[in-house]
TrEMBL record:
<feature type="compositionally biased region" description="Basic and acidic residues">
    <location>
        <begin position="8"/>
        <end position="133"/>
    </location>
</feature>
<protein>
    <submittedName>
        <fullName>Uncharacterized protein</fullName>
    </submittedName>
</protein>
<feature type="region of interest" description="Disordered">
    <location>
        <begin position="1"/>
        <end position="133"/>
    </location>
</feature>
Length: 133
C-alpha cells in the first residue's frame, strides 16, 4: 500500500520516505529516523508521545535520557541503545522481548536480525531493509 519507495526503505501506509527510513502513519521523517504519532523528530531519533528528544535518542514517558539512549523501565543502558524489559543490549541497538540483537538493529519478537535492519513478525531480513509480514 505505497506509492514511492526509495532505496533500502520500507513503506506502509505512508506518503514520503527518505532513504533507509521506515515510516508508519507519520508526516515528516528525516533520514534514518522512525516516527510514530509524533510531531518533531531529530535526525536518527525516534519519538513516541514525548516532548523533548535529544539527537539520536528516543524517549517515552521517562524523565532522564542520555544522548542517543532509550530508557523504559530499565536499570542499565548503554550509549545509543534502547532497552525495554531486556538484559543484554549492544551499542546502537533496540531490543524488546528478544535475546540476540546485532549492532544498529531493531528487533521485536523475532530471532535473527541482520545489521541495520528492522524486522517485525518475519524470519529472513536482508541488510538495511525493513520487512513487515
Amino acid at each position: 500500500n505505497e506509492t514511492t519507495n526509495e532505496e533500502g526503505s520500507s513503506k506502509a501506509d505512508e506518503t514520503t520516505n527518505e532513504e533507509g527510513s521506515s515510516k508508519a502513519d507519520e508526516t515528516t521523517n528525516e533520514e534514518g529516523s522512525s516516527k510514530a504519532d509524533e510531531t518533531t523528530n531529530e535526525e536518527g531519533s525516534s519519538k513516541a508521545d514525548e516532548t523533548t528528544n535529544e539527537e539520536g535518542s528516543s524517549k517515552a514517558d521517562k524523565t532522564t535520557n542520555e544522548e542517543g539512549s532509550f530508557k523504559a523501565d530499565e536499570t542499565t543502558n548503554e550509549e545509543g541503545s534502547s532497552k525495554a524489559d531486556e538484559t543484554t543490549n549492544e551499542e546502537g541497538s533496540s531490543k524488546a522481548d528478544e535475546t540476540t540483537n546485532e549492532e544498529g538493529s531493531s528487533k521485536a519478537d523475532k530471532t535473527t536480525n541482520e545489521e541495520g535492519s528492522s524486522k517485525a513478525d518475519e524470519t529472513t531480513n536482508e541488510e538495511g531493509s525493513s520487512k513487515a509480514r
